[in-house]
Amino acid sequence: MVRGARKFIALGVAAAVVYSIKEQLNFVPGPRHAAPVAAAAAASMMMAPAAFADEIGDASKKLGDASYNFAKEVDWNNGIFLQAPGKFQPLKALKAIDKMIEMGAAADPKLLKAAAEAHHKAIGSISGPNGVTSRADWDEVNTALGRVVASVPKAKVMAVYDAVKDITDPKVPAYMKSLVNGPDAEKAYQGFLEFKDVVAKNQVTAASAPAVVPSGDKIGAAAKQLSDASYPFIKDIDWLSDIYLKPLPGKTAPETLKAIDKMIVMGAKMDGNLLKAAAEAHHKAIGSVDSKGVTSAADYEAVNAALGRLVASVPKETVMDVYNSMAKIVDPTVTNNMFSKVNPLDAVAAAKGFYTFKDVVQASQRCYTRILSLETPKQVFPPVNRCTGAGEMKFLALGVAAAVVYSIKEQLNFVPGPRHAAPVAAAAAASMMMAPAAFADEIGDASKKLGDASYNFAKEVDWNNGIFLQAPGKFQPLKALKAIDKMIEMGAAADPKLLKAAAEAHHKAIGSISGPNGVTSRADWDEVNAALGRVVASVPKAKVMAVYDAVKDITDPKVPAYMKSLVNGPDAEKAYQGFLEFKDVVAKNQVTAASAPAVVPSGDKIGAAAKQLSDASYPFIKDIDWLSDIYLKPLPGKTAPETLKAIDKMIVMGAKMDGNLLKAAAEAHHKAIGSVDSKGVTSAADYEAVNAALGRLVASVPKETVMDVYNSMAKIVDPTVTNNMFSKVNPLDAVAAAKGFYTFKDVVQASQR
Q1: Alpha helices, DSSP H only, in 566-630?
Q2: The pTM is what?
Q3: Looking at domain 395-588, which of 1.10.150.20, 3.30.70.1170, 1.40.10.10, 3.40.190.10 is its CATH number?
Q4: What Pfam families is this protein classified in (predicted)?
């Protein structure tokens, strides 16, 4: 079945209820003119307040007298209503659906709404083994449907009848009649004939005007992006399969009906004009369907835009009721089975496009008190820049400012010196996510002297050299992780205000970079050194030395001499001597005790959402080869200055993070690294704690700042990176992780300041 029709039915699945109720009234064949109401029933999707004369209401009560016994005999839970009414002919059936859509588009939106509300009420009164509604609600449903049909010109109703008749086996009516008491069926049919005459008496002769279709809106633009991303996936799908007629495994009709009821409620709340516009878009899309059941790219885009606007006209909680009810009845095996039938890369691209689209729709949704959606990252599997445990990878992704700090300060260790000279150089690598200074001017004055001694050296360093991405010795990922752990511990012990000031100093320094070697200005060089000195002085010496020892343990002894060979030797010596004097001033101001541990929130929505994310994504985490050296590779086709722009956005984000939550995230990562196994994977419990900590941390930053990071990364990560990473894991685990992440980020965003 074509994509457009499938989506329309998904939104308007109330039609299934209407059809199953009314189809039974056609057991006894009658003259052609008796068909309109039965045919219209199948077309009355997404019903909606009545305003017809009491004549139809009175006729409905008479119909109830004649048909309710019959209604009680019908087994409404019978799976036969899912089957095709004859030979399976999907494209021919699509033509019938198209006629139903046309009829629905011509109906009065207020009457459609009233019919939906009547069905919702009727579902609430269902009882007994056969699943029949109450007599009163049976009458109300018939009344509402009669009014809907009367709001549509006869020609459109008859078009539905003719199309349905064309796909229905002539033996169906007699067979269906055989399932109930024959005389009751006959009586019901006679009552139906009288009812349809009353409806016809009140029937309009001309259809309402076409819908007013919005244009130039954000949803329309987002629909184009979604369509471009997902159309290859749409073409992968076998729309002519009969799998769409299969019942959901392990679910009863009453269970499924609960989900359908939520859809009916959603349909009743949709904007009437937009509902009509969506129906018209689907009608046009069906007109361009090819032999494989696929509509044109342009019509697919128009359908997505129409559906997006339609969903945006409904309160979020109503949409979520539909989602949650469907989640309860669709077994994961269904998703996995459908996924196995398409190109996984196309499916992932479509999913990513959809999540981005739904955020735009949600931002336009009415009854909002705040924006609840963070624009979805375009990379489901973002590139990582270290080979570490799962928790550590995510910490570095947020705190990548460390790369800048490390590359600036590492150069100051070209000339080997006594062990006590190491703290500042080692601390530089640990000062991730820097943040306002409040130290004595002594460190600031010493920084200026260091600048006098080292700036010539700084100008000689090729800061754009890819060598800074390489391991400083033999590739030992788990050993390197221990060094990173010490850096995290040091960062957690640092004064948050000083970390913020250091981040701001780095941001300013990046802004003044110039020349072929990518060096910052002298003034900003001094400010960065001063800020880092203050950060190091806020950490006890033992923690600084722990970083030094761990880094030394993974660094080849030949590295300092080699790095020195890349610059002017005397300038490097002078810089190092200046560094030794600077570190003495820092040590003089150094604290002797670490600050108190972070206060970790508990019982919050982000914590609960982190558990759901972790449960959904932990299998994916275990699929990843965390010990690979791929994380040290440069991004293909991107220069160091281009990458630095993205890093700068991360530094700005780090500077805006809440200090206590930053410390809590560092402590969670430290604990997670402690439980890492031989494959670089942390425990499930620690993984969950890291996700919760990161969620709270991101929620402490304004949305626009987070989006700056996302947009900057989107510019430098080539799609081939995503595809390559995706190819290395179980695709079903990856998709489950992505879905879990998108749900999690919505909860985070709802808490965002």
Answers
A1: 569-588, 605-623
A2: 0.69
A3: 1.40.10.10
A4: PCP
